[in-house]
Each structure stands twice: as C-alpha cells, then as structure tokens.
From TrEMBL:
This is tRNA(Ile)-lysidine synthase. It catalyses: cytidine(34) in tRNA(Ile2) + L-lysine + ATP = lysidine(34) in tRNA(Ile2) + AMP + diphosphate + H(+). The keyword Transferase does not apply. Ligates lysine onto the cytidine present at position 34 of the AUA codon-specific tRNA(Ile) that contains the anticodon CAU, in an ATP-dependent manner. Cytidine is converted to lysidine, thus changing the amino acid specificity of the tRNA from methionine to isoleucine. It comes from the Bacteria. It is an enzyme of class 6 (ligase).
Amino acid sequence: MKAEPVTDDEFAAFMARLEPLGPDEAGHPVCMAVSGGGDSMALAVLAGRWRRHVMALVVDHALRPESAEEAALTCCRLAALGIPARQLTLGTMKPGGLQKRAREARFEALEQACVAEGASVLLVAHHEADQEETLWMRQERGSGDRGLCGMAGRTVRGRVALLRPLLEVRPERLRATLRQAGVAWCEDPSNQNRRFRRVEVRQDLTSEQRQRMHDIRQRACASQRAKERELAALVARWVRWQPEGWVQLAPEAMTDDVLGRLIRLIGGQEYAPDRQSVEMLRRAGQGALGRACLAPLRGGVSGWMLYREARNLDEVVSARQGQCWDGRWRYLGPDRPGAVIAALGRRAGGLRKGRVVPACVLPSLPALWAGGELVAVPEGLEGLRPDLPRVTFVWDGGTPLTGERDWNG
C-alpha cells in the first residue's frame, strides 16, 4: 500500500494536542532539531508550513569527517524552503560511552540555542516506528509501567518543552511528504549498522510485534496514570523540600518509587537508579546511590534526609548567565569573566552559620570562584554566614518530580 504524505491539517491537529505553544512571534520562534535525515527534514517542511516563526537547529556532532559538510548542506536546503537555520557544532568528546555523551551534549547545545533564540519549545522528529523500537528495547531490559509508557508527546526538560508531534506517523509517510515537496535529505550510514541494538530491532521487528508494543503501551499508560496521582498526593503530604537542595522524608514516604525519583532529583541525574538498587538502599535505611545520600534524621525526629553527596563534585564551568551546574543549579547572575562555578566543598565548614541546615548539605552548594578564591555564594539560602557576597542561583533539576509528561497514551 502506497504511503500518503502528511497533510497540513493533520500536522496542525498533532500540534494542537501539544499546546500551550505561545504566540507566533519573531522573538519567540518554535525551534526544531533537524539532523538532515528524512524524519527531521519532513518535520521541518511540515512545521514551516504550519507556523510563520520557526527556527531549525542543525547539530554537527563532528564524529564523522563529512558531518560538517552535511550540516551545512542541510542549512542550505532549509534556507531554500524559507526556514531559518543555525548550525551548532559540538566539541570534542572523550572516548567511551560516546553515544550517551553525544546525546547529552546535543541536548545541551539545543537547549542553549533555544534560550538564545527566545524559544521555550523544541520539536523533535521521533515517529511511530521509533516508539515501537524504544518500547521493545525497554521491554528487553525489564522496564516497568513507567518505561513502557514510551516516549511522551510533550515533556519538560531543562528550560524547554520537548515536543514529539509525529509519534502517530509511520516513517514511510514522512518520506512521502518530502517527495511530494521535492525536498532531498541525507542518509546517515550508522542507521544501517547492525552493531547498534536499535538498528537490529528496527530491521527485525515484525508487524505483529510492533502491534504488541502498542497494546503494552496502552496498558502501561493506564496503570501509570493511577500511580502518578497516588505519588503526587504522597509527596505533597510526607516530603518536605528544602531550598538548599535536600529533602526530609517522613516514614510514610519511604517507598521505592518516591525514593527513586527523589534520588534522581537530588543527584541531578537524567534517570532514576534501577529499582533493585533503590530497594536495597531503602531496606538499609542509609547509604549513597545516584550521587545522593540517605541518612536518618537526628534530634529525635522520625524520618530520613536525602542530600547530594560531597563526592564527585568536580564539575567546573564558566560563570555565564544561564549556565547550569551539576545538573541541579542554574546561575542567573551576570557574566563574570575569569570566574567559575564550582562546589563550595571543604570551605563550607568554616562558612557555616547556625544549625538550620545540616553540615553535610553545604559542601554540595554551588559557589563562584576566581583564582582559587571564593567570590560569592548563592543568595536566599540558609546555613552560611550572612556577610558573604551573594549571587543568584535557582534550583533547576531538569524535570519535575511528578507530572513531567502526559500519561494518557
């Protein structure tokens, strides 16, 4: 059966489900990640016909010799369609875990570009087959309901809303859309390399197996909706957030699901630790996992505290406005040439004031440093001497504890 192109009305309906999107203004474009491949080029064509003010962000991973030329060619093709584009080139990455680091670096570059353009929305071109393959791989790893809900149409990540309007569209229809529009695209040879598990799954899944993934996802989403409501009520009643980036948990909140999500939040991680590790930590009642530490509350108070561990706090970044540090804090002060953001670390003990904030929490706070000397600490946080110079940091753990996506399936 011949694949039909995606119509403009269809795409507008897909986007309407993902609102709010904000006004169609030059100062607030809708950005989209465009690799130059068939999926993202089709997204660009459809988005360019749907909305007046859009911006394509073309990432050159610099992992292949020809990647820069392909990115430049993609920008030219977009320009011919009347779609403005920015080419973003990633820096050199160390070997080992290359795909994961490339993915993280790509999103960081895309997020920064969105903010620079005044955009709060980023479109990506994941389609129905991508969803099926993701579900199959998660099932292989033994994912629970949360993982088997698959990719969401809308999620919040960092400072942008990540939108996937094409999750109900077959990839063959996206190629048909490009052919109808007379638009060429690039083919990434890695998409045919069976050394990658996703390529194997893509090439080997049968139509029956793909349909089974849809059925599994529907059941998982229904189950997860109920769990999310229960979790939100539990956290609201029994978890107490502290502005210094730690939490107090009443005994009623010590479930594996709550603890796992809090570890992800406090540790500034993209994903929660595996369920078995969380269960072991909960049973032990104290210990470290996912860059977070669990310890019983003191002073005769029943419950636990969870805070960022003092180890592995070696990230040092330039003190630029909007810079994120340690996956937890974002600097909102002015650019400070020559200064860097790093952990308060061992200096915290000598700067402590009072006992409102436990001493173990303070070393993981961000601070500005210049030439090895402390320049400033975050304003509005307790536990540090009031005479210290202050600058603005806000908590930005990337995703909320609950409600970061729609579980309606």
